[in-house]
Design a protein that fits this description.
Oligomer: single chain
GO molecular function: calcium channel activity; calcium, potassium:sodium antiporter activity
Order of helices and strands: HHHHEHHHHHEHH
CATH architecture: Up-down Bundle
Radius of gyration: 19 Å
Shape: globular
Protein name: Sodium/calcium exchanger membrane region domain-containing protein
Number of helices: 11
Organism: marine sediment metagenome
InterPro entries: K/Na/Ca-exchanger (IPR004481), NaCa_Exmemb (IPR004837), NCX_ion-bd_dom_sf (IPR044880)
Distance between the termini: 26 Å
Number of domains: 1
Keywords: Membrane, Transmembrane, Transmembrane helix
CATH topology: A middle domain of Talin 1
Largest sheet: 2 strands, antiparallel
Length: 316
């Protein structure tokens, strides 16, 4: 057990340092390629921090555990909004970019609604997965074919000019540390939970989602601390979109079948409530030129605690 504690501490160190290098590399890459930091946050950062969910979902589906994969995707989205974004906002209020209300937030709302419609019959099959894959294909096409906005007023958020090779190196190093750190944390936490006799239901529904979402927490908090508001909120939105459109298709394609109704009625509902709250806060902040303040961060955390409490009560 002592070894597990040491591994967890090393995992946290890897996450913190890795997130810093990953965000630096992504920001520098945005400056070199002339791409908006929001687009970088929605793609490279979001995909990188969603890698643990993607890999674990594929492994779960191949092992014949579709509910674990579905729960991981939805649970990770709940953690991203309730904890990662909540903590980041409490540490430092975030100013959402104006473009968010026209493109990225509507995309997240659309994807979330489509997800609900597909899961409403409590069955996830190949046809559902193909619909999700079609949506992500269109999303990527629309994102990269729209006219490049270039670097606008927000270029002050970017680091000093750094070569593409050096920026890519930091990006790869940071991503590697994020994934290794997250995996070390989740496996050691599960080992400690087993040693302490914690129920397997709690381990599966919380630690797996928590472990695979730690990169989002580390990267989002780091972005907020460095003043990279677009990267911070873009990472959360992009990661949640990818969790639905990229992670969910694996169980549908590799292990199609029905799943526990709690995953829809309890967990999807919680995810949708938090998503709608984020949309409302972003639209209000953009319209009135305000920040998303600490009280909003506390609200996200309370929603997460409430969802966790309901889940814990139902399991026992």
């Amino acid at each position: 057990m002592l070894l597990d504690v040491i591994i967890i501490c090393l995992g946290f160190a890897g996450l913190i340092w890795g997130a810093d290098k990953f965000v630096f590399g992504a920001s520098a890459l945005a400056r070199n390629l002339g791409i908006s930091p929001l687009v970088i946050g929605l793609t490279i950062v979001a995909f990188g921090t969603s890698a643990p969910e993607i890999f674990s979902s594929a492994a779960s589906a191949l092992a014949g555990e579709p509910e674990l994969a579905i729960g991981n995707a939805i649970g990770s989205n709940i953690f991203n909004l309730g904890v990662a974004l909540g903590v980041a906002i409490i540490i430092k209020p975030i100013t959402p970019p104006k473009s968010l209300s026209r493109k990225e937030m509507p995309a997240l709302l659309l994807v979330s609604v489509v997800c609900g419609l597909l899961l409403a019959n409590l069955y996830l099959g190949a046809a559902d997965s193909l619909i999700l894959i079609g949506v992500i294909a269109y999303f990527i096409y629309a994102l990269f074919t729209r006219k490049a906005a270039g670097l606008e007023e927000d270029d002050t958020e970017l680091p000093e000019q750094t070569s593409i090779l050096r920026a890519s190196g930091f990006l790869a190093l940071g991503l590697t540390l994020l994934i290794i750190g997250a995996e070390a944390l989740v496996y050691s936490a599960i080992s400690i939970a087993d040693t302490l006799g914690v129920s397997s239901g709690i381990i599966g529904l919380t630690l797996v989602a928590l472990g695979t979402s730690l990169p989002e927490l580390a990267a989002t908090v780091t972005c907020a601390l460095r003043g990279h508001h677009e990267l911070a909120i873009g990472n959360i939105i992009g990661s949640n979109i990818l969790n639905i459109l990229v992670v969910l298709p694996f169980p549908g394609l590799l292990a199609a079948g029905s799943f526990n109704s709690d995953l829809f009625y309890r967990d999807y509902t919680a995810m949708m409530v938090m998503t709608l709250l984020l949309a409302a806060l972003c639209y209000f902040a953009i319209r009135h030129g305000k920040q998303i303040g600490r009280l909003s961060g506390i609200a996200f955390l309370l929603l997460y605690v409430g969802w966790f409490g309901i889940m814990y009560y139902q399991i026992h």
